[in-house]
Predict the 3D structure of the following.
Amino acid sequence: MRYLYFPGCKIASHLPQYDLATRSVLGAFDISLDSAELNCCGYPARDLDFTAAVFSSARILAVAAKKELPILCPCKCCFGSLKHADYWLRHQPGLRHRIAAMLREEDLSWEPGVPVRHLLSVLVEDVGLDRVREKIRKPYTGLPVAVHYGCHALRPAEVTRFDDPLAPTIFEKLVQTTGADPVDWPLRLDCCGYPLWGKNDRLSLKLMEKKLSSAHMAGARVLITACTYCQLQFDTVRSGQETLPILFPELPAVLVTQFLGVAMGQSAGALGLERNHIAWTASPA
């Protein structure tokens, strides 16, 4: 299987362990990740200049179309932006014509139907749960974990078409292949608060604290993320408050490919675990 790999802007500079772990895990399934000169998905500009935001994603979709490859996104914000662009280009002829003219300057064109896949969908649907289960060497038998979905892949459902936005199961199914036991926690689908960071830090931290408390009360011992921004919030931001103690340090945040990689017998170094700010002792329950 081959994909055009689109990690987005934040991973290289702020979360390189997500790239390391993703490449390590996907490599075990003989997945090839092609690279290209890609730009920002446009998410930061969506509320400032809608056309610029759509063009940013449209260019990525056009590059993928030219390469005849589906896109693989580990970041749910990037995934959501690409899906939004594809949706609006299909539904707004005027916007489509403006974007087409901009793309022609690089001899590119947007084409409907370019598959945009989030990392979770690739692992669960393209690789398949049976193949993932076959790779498990160190199962977390019965370990209670909280999976954190993030917002941008689930909503709006008619745009992203990722999973049931009110009762998703894809993340739990993947984690269960490792022998872990996903807990049912009330706030699992709520926002992590990261979009407010730098704008209203107090509210951002409050949202995070409520989510961590919910997962902790449900008995989770690990919080598993599958989004760049969510991991930054639950690990980097949480650990960086000099005037506040770390919120629930006994509930570390771990990236989904780090969690899977350990269960598959891969080394901590290959998965970038030493780069996480809140230490996690990767051991069975």
User: Anything to note?
Assistant: The CA atoms of residues 167 and 189 lie 9 Å apart. The radius of gyration is 19 Å. The chain has two domains: 2-117, 131-275.
